[in-house]
Automatic annotation (TrEMBL):
A GO MF label: RNA binding
Entry's localization field: Cell projection, Podosome
CC per GO annotation: podosome; ribonucleoprotein complex
Biological function: One of the major pre-mRNA-binding proteins. Binds tenaciously to poly(C) sequences. Likely to play a role in the nuclear metabolism of hnRNAs, particularly for pre-mRNAs that contain cytidine-rich sequences. Can also bind poly(C) single-stranded DNA. Plays an important role in p53/TP53 response to DNA damage, acting at the level of both transcription activation and repression. When sumoylated, acts as a transcriptional coactivator of p53/TP53, playing a role in p21/CDKN1A and 14-3-3 sigma/SFN induction.
Protein's name in the database: Heterogeneous nuclear ribonucleoprotein K
Tagged with keyword Ribonucleoprotein: yes
SMART domains assigned: KH
Domain K Homology, chain residue ranges per copy: 15-80
Subcellular location, principal: other
Amino acid sequence: MEEEQAFKRSRNTDEMVEIRILLQSKNAGAAIGKGGKNIEVPRIDYSASVSVPDSSGPEHISSISADTEKIGEILKKIIPTSKEYQRYKGSDFDC
């Protein structure tokens, strides 16, 4: 029993994590928003660090740093900006 408890991860939701998202260049502009609005909101509302550096290639790597609960909320706001999401909006994928 003690061994099982030793391997359990902490549920401390204040722990900062970083995720990286690979965006197609055509979606990067929408994720950033006009004047950077879409990445400024998570910075202010969630005290998160959000970056989408310029890339000359077909893809951008976006990074988001925040606590685990806030990252989920940020993704809920960013994902609907992608063109692929707009195409499948309202579809049921049995998720």
